[in-house]
Amino acid sequence: MTFPQDFINKIISGDSVETMKKIPDDSVNLVVTSPPYNLKNSTGNGMKDGRGGKWSSAALINGYSHYDDCMPHDKYVKWQRACLEEMMRVINDHGAIFYNHKWRVQNGLLQDRQDIVSGFPVRQIIIWRRKGGINFNAGYFLPTYEVIYLIAKKNFKLAKKANALGDIWEFTQDMNNPHPAPFPEALIERIISSTTADVILDPFMGSGTTGVIAKKLGRKYIGIDISPKYCKMAEDRIAGNGMQRETKGLKPQMDLFKQLQQA
Ligand SMILES: C[S@@+](CC[C@H](N)C(=O)[O-])C[C@H]1O[C@@H](n2cnc3c(N)ncnc32)[C@H](O)[C@@H]1O
After folding, report:
1. What is the whole-number distance in angstroms between the Cα of residue 249 and the centre of ligand 1?
2. Ligand 1: centre distance to CA 225 (Å)
3. In terms of C-beta distances under 8 Å and separation of at least 24 residues, what long-range contacts does 84-89 make, across chains too?
4. Which CATH class is domain 10-262?
5. Which of 98, 123, 97, 103 has the alpha carbon at shortest distance from 115?
6. Which of 7, 12, 70, 236 is the most buried (most CB within 10 A)?
7. Sheet with strand 220-225: strands edge to edge
């Protein structure tokens, strides 16, 4: 594969670390991404019994199409740090990474993801408050937030006036996307339009939200996902062909939500 022609405005089906290794140093301005959260490696906090204790995880009951999201914790941390190292290598001195993750409690201990991000230049933590949702688990309050680590190289600056925004952002989850864990478009629009980045990489592109918004805002994208099925979804969506074309075997989240309500 040759850079830039095989990468810019392309969706690449492959492993994120291996594919990023083929991208030259300093050739990307921004990374916006949400990795798999290792959700199936859980003590029963909504995932392990396969019933989906909480609405936010319900669409993930069946998992991703080509990845089981169940690694031993140490291996998962090592993998995510390898991903972040590649992201840091490919962004230039004015670049930044918006790395979305979730804090959780396991065996009484807080997993605040410090083991993943320590040593990387975390500049700020943004709270994404997800609006809405219904809780099916009587043992917990409804989880409503995720975190976005802004990891920035030394010369990174926000676009003009973006610093007027606060660090708690409220966006409703995307209910009509057949991917099990999509970004809401408005969240990605907020991130990308808060920067002046030209080339934007999402090494866990899923249904292509980062690409859709990059294109909408006149920026360039590079998308990577292990699942050929999601890559096809992303390509269709970016081409403006909608999301319902490649939905065989994938239920939109709203359908699942209704099923759970009726259960
Ligand atoms: C949280 S989802 C990303 C969803 C995306 N933000 C969207 O808007 O649709 C994580 C994605 O990582 C992908 N994935 C899992 N392991 C991967 C790997 N080793 N390399 C690349 N992608 C991987 C999954 O297929 C899944 O689509």
Report:
1. 17
2. 5
3. 84/116, 84/117, 84/120, 84/151, 86/16, 86/17, 86/20, 86/21, 86/203, 87/20, 87/31, 87/33, 87/151, 87/201, 87/203, 88/120, 88/151, 88/153, 89/20, 89/25
4. alpha beta
5. 103
6. 7
7. 10-13, 220-225, 199-202, 28-33, 91-101, 145-152, 122-131, 168-172
Ligand 1 binding pocket, CB closer than 6 Å: 15-16, 34-36, 64, 66-67, 179, 181-183, 204, 206-207, 209, 224-227, 230
Q: Compute the distance between CA of residue 69 and CA of residue 49 in angstroms, rounded to an integer.
A: 14
User: Which residue shows structure tokens 């991703």?
Assistant: 64
- Residues 6 or more apart whose Cβ sits within 8 Å of residue 243: 176, 177, 178, 207, 233, 236, 237
pLDDT of 253: 45
Single-letter amino acid, residue 31: V
DSSP bridge pairs for 201: 31, 222
Tokens of 71: 């690694």
H or E segment at 130?
strand 122-131
